[in-house]
User: Fold Oxygen tolerance from Cellulophaga tyrosinoxydans.
Amino acid sequence: MQLLLKKYLAFIGLLFFALFVNAQDDEVTFEMSVSKNKVGLNEKLRVDFSMNRDGDNFNPPNFNGFDVVFGPGQSIKNTFMNGVRSFSKVYSYVLEPTAKGKFTIGQATIVIDGKTYKSLTKEIEVTGVVENPNAPPSAESIADENLHLVAEVSNSNPYLNEAISVVYKLYVSDINVTNFRPIDNPTYNNFWSQDMPVKQYTVEEGTYDGKPYRFVVLKRVVLYPQKTGKLDIEPLALNVSLEVPSGRRDFFGRPIYTATSKTVSAGSRTITVKELPIEGKPENFSGAVGDFNFSVTTSKTALNASESLQAIVEVNGSGNLKLFQLPELNLPSSLEVYEPEFEEKINTSISGMDGSVKNNYTVIPSFKGKYPIPSISFSFFNPKTEQYRTINSQEILINVLQGPVNGNSSTASNASVVNNRQTVEATGDQFQFIKLKTTLQPASVSYFFGSKAYFLWLLLPLLLIPIAILFGRKREAILSDVAGNKIKKANRLARKYLSAAKKTLGNKDAFYVALEKALHNYLKAKLKIETSEFSKDKIAQLLSEKKVDNTTSEGFIALLKNCEMARYSPFSNVQMQEDYNKASEVISAMDKQL
Assistant:
């Protein structure tokens, strides 16, 4: 029994020792905190320097701009709960400002386990004299100190067409957020932008300005700069409903909160976009920026004449996949080539676009022979290595096994080349005898006057009179329908300008002017609104009332935004083709729903 007791006591001792060592191995923290970041000239400021391990040789900062009213006060808290030891030690000061302005409280130092630790600095704003310096802080001042909206930019100095991300975070401390709504959403002029929707708001722990906060990611967007130089990102502004502690407690000792609201802004951010290097820039460079692979492949290399094969020009990797043109195939004239079908499989994440784009050519040979598909090259700029790279495709030989021989082909026989003659083969029906006997018959003669046709033509004007009366009434009804005529005219104009937009693909200005006119007239036809009433909010409202689904409505609004951005932003042919296809899809979808 005694032996068992000794073993039990030894186990308990080892357990306490392990817990003590674990507590001692915690990461050392040494931080400075202030009672408020903004203080009146006749108010007092409390400054605390806290640590989780005991130390020596504490050296406070020089409190420039303040007089020390009290301090240093020292408090130690050493607890042991649930087998875990916690220790905290705090040096406290009470300061009184001596002048208005912004002052920085410098770093304090302390030696813990032979190492010197420094606290972060704090900036304090001293305002004029307040009426009641001993009054508790107002709800607005508490909100100012504990609520911050921040726009975090992944790279403020990217290359042209290099992906950057902007993440908007709402930092909160010691207050509760009950609701928020956007007041002003940023516009990304001179950027190709892609929103990354936040499906669910998740509260996370973090730090802001050296102080622990809770934060929520509100908005994420991926940007590709389309111009060089300094580009501004407009701020995101929110109206936030809050509950802030009032400093009072109810009958049960629970804190009482005061409801208030505050407008916060992420502030404008400036991005400095670098020009792509001139040195080493390939002649065939078409604007691709990223890290890519390039290939040219065919579905088959041996076939008969009049059969078809697929030649695929493909680029895959990560970068601005939607913002450059693929190189074109250079095929022999003896091969019939159709316009390529463009296909893209692109996934856009917070780090940018990745996936593949390709052109699929349908090729049909007409003659027997061997036809090479020459090597073509694709060049891109890699912002990570800051160098250009060119990839050349492999030459492909197409072998047409059976079919007619092209007299001009290099694969024709030597006899055909030398004699330049074609062999004539008899088919058996090339020569026919002229017939000597005929079978002629006398033609029958009929007179028009007094015939059935004569009387029908005579009565025809009488039959047309009621038809003309009905047609006239119908025409008057159509002309009197002013609203209906406007709708029909707008429909015709929408089709006309959409057709004009297709014809001007490649000409950015003409394309987007025609596309915008087509969208305008389509709306006038379907929603019965005039151009003077034309606004995105009204369009969204009317489409919602007409029960158009959100995907179609957002697609239509996005097209209108692209038409506006095209006036001052560069757009590639790929982007124009994509916008045209999207316009056709959206108009077709809206037709079905309306």
